[in-house]
Amino acid sequence: MSNIISLTASKRDFLGTGASRRLRREGMIPAVIYARGAENVNFQLSLQQVEKIEHHAGLVSIAIEGVGVKNAIVKEVQYKAINSMPLAVDFLEVKADQKVLVSVPVEAKGEPEGFRAGGQLEQVIHELEIEVAPADIPEVIIVDVSALKVDEILTIADVKLPGSAVAKGEPGQIVFQVRVPHSKGGEAAAPAASEAAAPEKK
């Protein structure tokens, strides 16, 4: 399933720090699309539009007045240190037949079988870098962990990716594992047998 957000924007003719500050006072955020071998396109977005795409890993189709439609991915959202308000957005223009490198969040699905043996699920990798066609970029990568037993792992090689996506990390790198938590002394964190069998004091 494709993952595309469509936006409509106005071209930004006045550049520089002063012009950007005036935009922000008006509730608009300066943005730019960088393109390989082509001129950059400067435009503006509303704060609501930025909030819509700031955590979006997929394709953004932007209809810019006087320019036309540009297909891009979000490369960076710059924030104000004091209140985390967006300051600017950088996009990278992409072509339909051009694969891109993106980092996509990873989430677990299901309850591991190892839970019944006292195991806990540990997530080692929270974002996976993939090479993928723009139209196939997923919002999130869902990994089924329900078959994992205690001391079993799921690696990058085990992760099923959508469409044309190919993982760029080491295939043997652990994404999820199920382990039994241990106490500081190295013993399994469970009540001692003597405590469990001790009679109730009257």
List the helices and strands and how they pair.
Elements: E1 4-11, H1 17-25, E2 28-34, E3 41-46, H2 47-53, E4 59-64, E5 68-79, E6 86-93, E7 100-109, E8 120-123, E9 127-132, E10 141-144, E11 153-155, E12 166-167, E13 174-179, H3 193-197
Parallel strand pairs: 1-4, 2-6, 7-10
Antiparallel strand pairs: 1-3, 2-3, 4-5, 5-6, 7-9, 8-13, 9-12, 11-13
Shape field? elongated
Strand content: 35-45%
Total count of helical runs of at least 4 residues: 3
Uncertain segments are 189-198
Biggest sheet, strands in spatial order? 1-3-2-6-5-4
Description:
This protein is mainly β and 202 residues long. Helix content is 10%, strand content 41%. The chain has three helices and 13 strands; from the N terminus they run E-H-E-E-H-E-E-E-E-E-E-E-E-E-E-H. The strands form three sheets. Strands 1-3-2-6-5-4 form a six-stranded mixed barrel. Strands 10-7-9-12 form a four-stranded mixed beta sheet, with no helix packed on it.
Short key terms for the protein model shown above:
202 residues, mainly beta, six-stranded mixed β-barrel, four-stranded mixed β-sheet, 3 helices, 13 strands, 10% helix
